[in-house]
Amino acid sequence: MSQKRQLLIDIALKLFYQNGINSIGINEILKLSGVAKRTLYNHFDSKDALVLAALEQRHQNFIEWLGQKLVSTQSNIEVIEAIFGALNSWFKGNEEVLGDFRGCFFINTSAEFSDSECDISKYCGFHKRQVRSLIQQYLDSENPDLLDAICIMQEGAIVMAYMTGNSDEVTAKSIDILKKL
User: Fold this and answer.
1) What pTM was estimated for this model as a whole?
2) What does the domain layout of the chain look like in residue ranges?
3) For 46-76, what is each residue's pLDDT tens digit?
4) Are residues 157 and 170 in contact, defined by beta-carbon separation less than 8 angstroms?
5) Could you say which of 3.40.50.10420, 1.20.1440.20, 3.10.180.10, 1.10.357.10 is the CATH number of the domain covering 3-179?
6) N or C: lower Cβ tally within 10 Å for the chain?
7) Closest to 90 measured CA to CA, from 67, 71, 73, 65
8) What CA–CA distance (Å, rounded) separates 100 from 65?
């Protein structure tokens, strides 16, 4: 991948995540990147193509990050504690690879693109399915209810931590509830 293409993706991802996609124009990305408009359109045929590239980058970052948090788990309880401990660390701004916490980029993005058939909305759904699949790989049982509960609680924790700013309580309650299943 060319350095300029990667620079455009990195800047777009940062701006889109901080401010929302619809509030950021191509000119702002060009200004911060120092890349010419023609160069941008040589790499991306539209803003939507740049949004998809930013989503792909965030997806890679998130999946690698979560996988690293889960790799040493050996029980369902350890999976639960690893997930919600990692989330709490992210909520507090301690996960450099994910940046400052601004909620879930995929939830935020899907809220801006209401057409469930557009490529951007479909990619957001793909990301959520991949996160679920990754978590499932580390659970030591085939209990679909536990997997569902973890995924629902994870999404809820992300939203509640963003909306309330109270990450400790949100993650602690999630862990306590899930341990009882």
Assistant:
1) 0.94
2) 3-179
3) 999 999 999 999 999 999 999 999 999 999 9
4) yes
5) 1.10.357.10
6) N
7) 65
8) 14
